[in-house]
Amino acid sequence: MVSERTLPSFSPLAGRRWPEGSDEGQRERVRSLHRPSSPCRDLLPASGEKEELQHRAWAAAAAVPDPEVPCVTVADLGILRSVELVDGVAVAKVTPTYSGCPAVLAIELAVEAALRDAGFEARVERVISPAWTTDWITPEGRDKLRDYGIAPPEKTSSSIRSLFGEIEVACPRCGSSDTERVSEFGSTACKAHWRCLACREPFDYFKCI
Amino acid sequence: MGAAVAIDRETLVTLLVRLADDHLVLGHRLSEWCGHAPMLEEDLAMPNMALDLIGQARALYAYAAEIEGRGRSEDDFAYLRREREYLNCLLVERPNGDFAQTMLRQLYVAAYMEPFWKAAASSSDATLAGIAAKAVKEVAYHIRHAGEWVVRLGDGTEESRRRMEAAIEELAPYIDELFEDDAVTAAAAEAGIAPQPSSLRPAFDRIVGPIFAEAGLTFVTPPYSQRGGRKGMHGEAMGFLLADLQHIQRTYPGATW
Fold this sequence. Notes:
The complex is a heterodimer of chains A (209) and B (257).
Chain A: H1 2-6, E1 27-31, H2 47-62, H3 74-77, E2 80-86, E3 89-94, H4 104-117, E4 121-127, H5 139-148, E5 150-151, E6 179-183, E7 191-196, E8 202-206
Parallel strand pairs in A: 3-4, 5-8
Antiparallel strand pairs in A: 1-4, 2-3, 6-7, 7-8
Helix pairs in contact in A: 2-4
Chain B: H1 9-31, H2 40-68, H3 74-79, H4 90-93, H5 99-120, H6 126-154, H7 158-171, H8 183-190, H9 201-215, H10 236-251
Helix pairs in contact in B: 1-2, 1-8, 2-6, 5-6, 5-7, 5-9, 6-7, 6-9
């Protein structure tokens, strides 16, 4: 039991994208649901088994699609930070995208449900710090967005003083760079509304934050 | 990093509630445009920005409630306080007026919050730093959006210019209050939690100045400045705003959906 808490959590992104030690940031415990008797509780750890379980828990949570952009999963977006087994409970850490993203609660519930469906007792914690940025979207996630018809975020200087300053966004349908912004604010908080002047198709652009 | 100087709990709660109230009230004002904006894109833009602001407010209220430790929730802060307990600045509660006035108010608040969030992103308080790191990027969009409208209207037709100039005059008395320091802000600055408001004025001027220059607008110095919001003294408009914001909870206490 002593080694239980000290085992490293499994996250394929760990250490790659956010500053070291950042997991110490404040968390908001979202909800702890009723606890069905968990198959995991009885399986406690020979460490190989534990690792296997953590992989399985990660895989279950990672496959949850984003409710508003269902072509990508929470892992593709980089908002699933880690899944860790703590005292037999799968604890998933999730970070919000935009401050006011109305999907946050839906995402947290979906992750929790996916973990329970996979046979885990589950809890989801909201991690605010460090803040999510669009840089956390994986390369696969960017490809999936493009295939879905949403232009992935472009790196910009995001200078607040460059009024009317357009960034170059390639049309996700025809690839042309001859595009224009229709509105900075689009169908969801994370997207802007653009149109392609070459193929005339309107499209969403995933804003860079 | 640990705070060099400790801040007492009540002071920190006051600081967070002021910030949260600014965002809730401005978010509410922007949401009033939903369905009434002059064009479809703006009908999307304003509620989108309102979502950002209310999202920031929620995170701040939740954190304030946690520190306070009296079992209040973010909803208790938003829906169950009286007018005198709201600590927002007066600028955000000003009625929307016309679209020009709303955009100018948005620019002012965003130009104030941008340097604030930038400084708070390296706050000694990890939660505030996390909220700030996200908010600073969101507010950049608000500045660009509002700034572009201030230029379009200020440098537009005779009518649009007249309206923008009227908005400048109307809102001028409410700007100085943003930059007011007091014991709460001083304690927060000393603890490395948040910057002194007065220190943000140069950055505010650097953002608004070039936008006004491009729009051909000039700032007017008001004959007087209105203050009191940080102490819970509000204008007449605030009561109507709260009646609208709180009427469900006041009519059906504890209602959920």
